[in-house]
Amino acid sequence: MLQEIRDIITRGEKFLITAHIDPDGDAIGSAFSLYWVLESLHKQPCIYLRDSLPYMYEFLPRPQRVAHGEIPEDQYDAVFALDCGNLFRVGKGYEKLKEMGPVINVDHHMTNEAFGTINVIDPDASSVAEILYRLYKTMKVAMTFNVAINVYTAIFTDTGSFRYSNTNSQAFLICEEMTRSGVAPSYVAQMVHESHPKERFLLLGLVLATLETHKNDTIAMAMVTQEMFRRTNTSKEHTEGFVESVKEIRGIDVAVLLREITGNQYKISMRSKGNSDVASICNLFGGGGHRNAAGCTINGTIVEVKDRLKEAFKIE
Ligand code: 5GP
Ligand code: MN
């Protein structure tokens, strides 16, 4: 499969690279690394991410051609869909992608729907960047600094800074190699984890005040509302890491963050430790993800949404 992709790249010229809405470090780092690889081969890559980059990823070497909002419609020699369990995750207009060129689906979600013309799905991979790294090795391209720091950051963030169960030996081996291309782990950690504006902590204070625990303190839930964003002059990008903070409580198996999109729609993020499978819970609501990190969107008022979640978790 990787050889087939290598051949498509060799023969082609124009490529679209896309990933999921609300892009995280893996979506961004994977897309950017592929861009720099294609550019080093004198190809014409273009990136489409529906949403702009959260501020903590702005330090990454930024490609010239990155589009947000509307998919840049054109004919491409291939359309790479990265880190998307289904094509819907790209956002509005995703149906059109299949008409723009063969879709190459590269993902590590167990629930991936194999929607591509070519599908490279490895649920054992720590991140999409790890799968792309194998492609880069197949292609024998040089690990330039621009490629390396994006690959490193993707793996670093998708493994929760080498803490989650997807932290495998490949993750360490690849990241070690990236340090030899000039990536300083302390710099990446500082950019990702220690570059927050003060307002984020004012927001965190409000969110932590909503914390409730259930089932003998094994399930934690917290909430962020549009009113909290207004009061602290923040937005959804400032909530990165909140659900992980709640998971730090001793004895908690599952942490849930409810983020108000509108008064009638909530984005749910779940994280778990050990064997608790939050992907299957999110699946009940049409979402998905990994066993220990998943998400979904639920329609309804806050009371209705909480009731539906409590029912899913069998909370009295
Ligand atoms: P997050 O809570 O950070 O948004 O997402 C955690 C994980 O769940 C990521 O792997 C993400 O791709 C996946 N995820 C989040 N929301 C959804 C969703 O609505 N549908 C699907 N299929 N996966 C999601
Ligand atoms: Mn990922």
Task: Please describe what this structure looks like.
By secondary structure, the protein is α/β, with parallel strands linked by helices. It folds into two domains: 2-193, inorganic pyrophosphatase (n-terminal core) (Alpha-Beta Complex), CATH 3.90.1640.10; 198-312, Diaminopimelate Epimerase, Chain A, domain 1 (Roll). 38% of the residues lie in helices and 20% in strands. It is built from twelve helices and twelve strands. The strands form two sheets. It has a six-stranded parallel β-sheet with strand order 3-2-1-4-5-6. The longest helix has 16 residues, at 25-40. The chain is globular. The chain starts with a helix and ends with a helix. Guanosine-5'-monophosphate is lined by residues 20, 22, 24, 85, 269, 287-290, 293-297.
Topology, please?
Elements: H1 2-11, E1 14-19, H2 25-40, E2 44-48, E3 66-67, E4 78-82, H3 97-100, E5 103-107, E6 118-121, H4 128-139, H5 145-158, H6 169-180, H7 185-193, H8 198-208, E7 212-214, E8 219-224, H9 226-232, H10 242-247, E9 254-262, E10 265-272, H11 278-284, E11 288-289, E12 293-299, H12 302-312
Parallel strand pairs: 1-2, 1-4, 2-3, 4-5, 5-6, 8-9
Antiparallel strand pairs: 7-8, 9-10, 10-12, 11-12
The structure holds guanosine-5'-monophosphate (5GP) and manganese (II) ion.
